[in-house]
Design brief:
Layout (H helix, E strand, L loop, with lengths): L5 H6 L2 E5 L7 H10 L4 E5 L5 H11 L4 E5 L4 H10 L4 E2 L5 H8 L5 E2 L1 E2 L2 H10 L3 E4 L7 H8 L7 E4 L8 H5 L7 E3 L5 H5 L3 H12 L4
Parallel strand pairs: 1-2, 1-9, 2-3, 4-5, 6-7, 7-8
Helix pairs in contact: 2-10
Family: Belongs to the KHG/KDPG aldolase family.
Keywords: Carbohydrate metabolism, Lyase, Schiff base
GO molecular function: 2-dehydro-3-deoxy-phosphogluconate aldolase activity
Length: about 210
């Protein structure tokens, strides 16, 4: 039985996508995002420190819902959930990964970029999908076109979205939330400017009244 990923998308309009090089920033960063109103946080498994970051956030910031992104291999599922990931996100979803994710104990946003991929994931039982990379793959116009033929699916578009582009996605009935890294600029993280991150998170939170 698949865990329902839709509540993740209902919790806030934006899922910050984090690439953490130094796990010591993970806890203050998660607190800054929660303070701005964005409790659902994706940590990409793209750095050696990513799993430690997930572990720390899961342990120290219970009001955050931390998940693991960049799930590309079946082995990542166990490793990420053991670290405390409460949801998983993949950039794309080949069949073997879809099978692994469909028996996963936590909610999943499997990635797709085409109509056929979305239909294949729906056949596995997934109803909430990541649309990646959103801007190069057709953007909001593409997702709007899917609502007619695929009315049972809701999307989390991610990739190339910022505060200016997010509203056109969030206006669509088949978009639950958008993902993006813009709320955590590299320079703010490097200088420890968590107040700025909270401000950006609050602006993002306000994108859906
Ligand atoms: O590695 C993954 O699995 C990903 O999730 C990729 C991210 O979604 C994008 O890197 C975020 O996109 P930007 O907001 O354009 O920076």
């Amino acid at each position: 039985m698949l865990a329902d990923a839709r509540p993740l998308l209902a919790a806030a309009p934006v899922i910050p996508v984090l690439t953490i090089k130094d796990a010591s920033v993970a806890v203050p960063l998660a607190r800054a995002l929660v303070a701005g109103g964005l409790p659902v946080i994706e940590v990409t498994l793209r750095t050696p420190q990513a799993l430690s970051a997930i572990r720390e956030i899961a342990r120290e910031v219970p009001e955050a819902v931390v998940g693991a992104g960049t799930i590309t291999r079946v082995e990542d599922i166990q490793v990420a959930t053991a670290a405390g990931a409460r949801f998983l996100v993949s950039p794309g979803t080949p069949a073997a990964l879809a099978v692994g994710l469909s028996s996963c104990p936590v909610p999943v946003l499997p990635g797709c970029a085409t109509v056929t991929e979305a239909m294949a994931l729906a056949a596995y039982g997934f109803t909430a999908l990541k649309f990646f990379p959103a801007e190069p793959s057709g953007g909001a116009a593409f997702l709007k076109s899917l609502s007619g033929p695929l009315p049972g699916l809701v999307f989390c578009p991610t990739g190339g979205i910022d505060a200016a582009k997010a509203p056109s996605y969030l206006a669509l009935a088949n978009v639950g939330a958008v993902g993006g890294s813009w709320v955590v600029p590299d320079d703010a993280l490097a200088s420890g400017d968590f107040a700025r991150i909270t401000r950006l998170a609050a602006e993002a939170r306000a994108l859906r009244p």
